């Protein structure tokens, strides 16, 4: 800022302080008293005051200048360091869930893995993550956030070492379970830790960075998969073992990073909490924030004296019960909208669209992961501009449309599905089911069969339906497509899981649209919103439950996709996801309140009215409360009302 400009700001800030005058101080005293009795009244006063504020443009300018000044000196670099080191947990979550698909291509050959073992290696991680996310609630409450993050990084490191050194499939399974335990704990702890350390005006952005790291981890995994796929032997050891690097980095970083100040206050370690809070707030006075956290904890303790397990107390207390329903609902709809099916089957979708080279498909899958990553970046930018509610609603609307486009793509492809024109003799006997199908779409829906064809220009010739090789779906059990080498100039092409048609590009369009819309909102918001909607006493348990729901629905959707497609066909499955996304849209429209800019201690009041009327309060922009600091003194933005400026 130039000297002149900064003088101006100083001048306006000084005038603003003067304007506040005696009346301001009196009002502050009243507010402190009100704060001790609960902070509800602040919201009401903010509602009325903001409308008066908007009448005075001059006051608006002053506010803006003051806010700018405030934001400049409240965001010390340390809070970013804390967030980035925590978000390495998100990176490992993404890397370890993403890397397995590429590693599997090599592993299944080298270790001769059956389909059951392949499925076990993929889903054991997700299953273990579901269990440890649920258990993470207790661990977080008892041990604190920092030991849980340290524990997760140790598990990630141990898992990576076990996997890289594995000699048999049983050890691989053990390693995948250890990694899954780390993922579950990290997925529920990291967002909570960041939310508790962040200042309110940056909280959404910093927590969303964690999801950026998740999708960044998935993208890095895709690149590593691509690079090591050229290594015929032991490539998978590097793919699976490389995650030890960020895991060790996180472990070392967290040896020096502090515990969450809110957890420390809750456990009565107030001196330490003060030290940590001033460390992460840099040059700012922390008294107001400290008192507000302390008051709300004292109040919670008085109210929560009823005893019993936390989950029981959450369920009998309406605001936390509602928050839990909203949090779990968001996580459930994130998975029911099919993100991991789309990511997992992106290779198939790409092949459908005419990519018939394996290597190219692997690299294009990296492009898909990159789209997910780069549009999550858009979410990081939008979350503090649009707010959580608008971002989630916009994102899910687009995602639903994309799912319909995907479904239509599969439907059109099925309708113009190429016929079987060539029926070679089956060496195992004449009655193989595959050779009895007369169209590709029937053939592709049978998991035991694949479509083998040649291309003459753009038309499909010499097409047959052949049983798939029991060891690898990459080739036919016998005949022209037995060899994995693909198409190349006039050769035969093996299509497993898809049919080549001229409408295949609609599926590619659907895929791109899906990621563009899903990534900025539905990807990160369930994690972000869950990190902020529970009061402190219920935060670990609430996040444990909602993360558990996320992982359980993840297993459910990815494991049932193939069967769903078999019963309902591919387009039927995507129509089903689109339908579920519509239900999610209604739920979010009705039930998700806006939490942008609010202090964690204020958010509970958003769930005080009946469930699914909270969405309505979003239009009430007057509920927005912001604290700004002018020349070292804290004051409430709503104090700048007409009577102060007269
Ligand atoms: O928020 C994340 C992200 O969207 C990932 O891409 C997805 O794989 C995860 O399941 C989800 O929880």
Automatic annotation (TrEMBL):
Gene Ontology BP, a term: myo-inositol transport
GO MF terms, alphabetically ordered: myo-inositol:proton symporter activity
Key words of the record: Cell membrane, Glycoprotein, Membrane, Phosphoprotein, Transmembrane, Transmembrane helix, Transport
Protein localization: Cell membrane
Keyword Membrane: yes
Domain of life: Eukaryota
Assigned protein family: Belongs to the major facilitator superfamily. Sugar transporter (TC 2.A.1.1) family.
Name the record gives this protein: Proton myo-inositol cotransporter
The species this protein was found in: Xenopus tropicalis
Source species taxonomy: Eukaryota, Metazoa, Chordata, Craniata, Vertebrata
Gene that produces this protein: slc2a13
């Amino acid at each position: 800022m130039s000297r002149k400009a900064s003088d101006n700001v100083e001048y306006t800030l000084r005038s603003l302080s003067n304007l506040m005058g005696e009346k301001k101080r009196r009002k502050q005293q009243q507010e402190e008293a009100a704060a001790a009795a609960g902070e509800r009244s602040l919201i009401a006063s903010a509602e009325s005051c903001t409308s008066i504020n908007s009448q005075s443009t001059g006051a608006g300018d002053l506010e803006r200048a003051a806010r700018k000044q405030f934001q400049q000196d409240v965001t010390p670099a340390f809070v970013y360091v804390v967030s980035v080191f925590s978000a390495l947990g998100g990176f490992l979550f993404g890397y370890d869930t993403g890397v397995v698909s590429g590693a599997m291509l090599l592993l299944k050959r080298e270790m001769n893995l059956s389909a059951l073992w392949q499925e076990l290696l993929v889903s054991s991680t997700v299953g273990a993550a579901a269990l440890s996310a649920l258990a993470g609630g207790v661990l977080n409450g008892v041990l604190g956030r920092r030991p849980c993050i340290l524990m997760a990084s140790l598990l990630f490191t141990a898992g990576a070492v076990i996997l890289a050194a594995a000699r048999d499939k049983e050890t691989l399974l053990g390693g995948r379970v250890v990694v899954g335990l780390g993922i579950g704990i990290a997925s529920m702890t990291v967002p909570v830790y960041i939310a508790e350390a962040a200042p309110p005006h940056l909280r959404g952005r910093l927590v969303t960075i964690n999801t950026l790291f998740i999708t960044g981890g998935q993208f890095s995994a895709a690149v590593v998969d691509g690079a090591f796929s050229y290594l015929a032997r032991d490539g998978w050891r590097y793919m699976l073992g490389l995650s030890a690097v960020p895991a060790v980095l996180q472990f070392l970083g967290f040896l020096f990073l502090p515990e969450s100040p809110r957890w420390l206050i809750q456990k009565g370690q107030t001196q330490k909490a003060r030290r940590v809070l001033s460390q992460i707030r840099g040059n700012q006075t922390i008294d107001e924030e400290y008192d507000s956290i302390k008051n709300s904890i004292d109040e919670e303790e008085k109210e929560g004296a009823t005893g019993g397990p936390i989950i029981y107390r959450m369920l009998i207390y309406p605001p936390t019960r509602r928050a839990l329903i909203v949090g779990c609902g968001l996580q459930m709809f994130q998975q029911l909208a099919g993100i991991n099916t789309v990511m997992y089957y992106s290779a198939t979708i790409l092949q459908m669209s005419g990519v018939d080279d394996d290597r190219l498909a692997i690299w294009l899958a990296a492009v898909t992961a990159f789209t997910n990553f780069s549009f999550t970046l858009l979410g990081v930018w939008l979350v503090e501009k649009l707010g959580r509610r608008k971002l989630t609603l916009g994102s899910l609307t687009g995602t639903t449309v994309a799912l319909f486009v995907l479904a239509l793509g599969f439907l059109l492809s099925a309708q113009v599905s190429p016929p079987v024109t060539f029926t070679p003799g089956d060496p195992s006997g004449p009655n193989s089911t595959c050779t009895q199908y007369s169209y590709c779409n029937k053939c592709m829906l049978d998991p035991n069969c694949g479509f083998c064809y040649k291309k003459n220009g753009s038309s499909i010739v010499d097409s047959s339906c052949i049983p798939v090789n029991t060891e690898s779906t990459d080739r036919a059990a016998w005949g022209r497509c037995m060899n994995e080498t693909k198409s190349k100039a006039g050769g035969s092409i093996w299509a497993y899981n898809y049919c080549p048609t001229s409408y295949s590009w609609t599926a590619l369009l659907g895929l791109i649209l899906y990621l563009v819309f899903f990534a900025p909102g539905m990807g990160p918001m369930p994690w972000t919103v869950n990190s902020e909607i529970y009061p402190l006493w219920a935060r670990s348990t609430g996040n444990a439950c909602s993360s558990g729901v996320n992982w359980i629905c993840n297993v459910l959707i990815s494991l049932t996709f193939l069967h769903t497609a078999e019963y309902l066909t591919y387009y039927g499955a995507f129509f089903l996801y689109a339908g579920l996304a519509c239900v999610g849209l209604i739920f979010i429209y009705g039930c998700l309140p806006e939490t942008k800019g609010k202090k964690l201690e204020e958010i509970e009041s958003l769930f005080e009215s009946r469930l699914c009327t909270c969405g309505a309060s979003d239009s009430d922009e007057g509920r927005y409360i912001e604290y700004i600091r002018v020349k070292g003194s804290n004051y409430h933005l709503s104090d700048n009302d007409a009577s102060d400026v007269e």
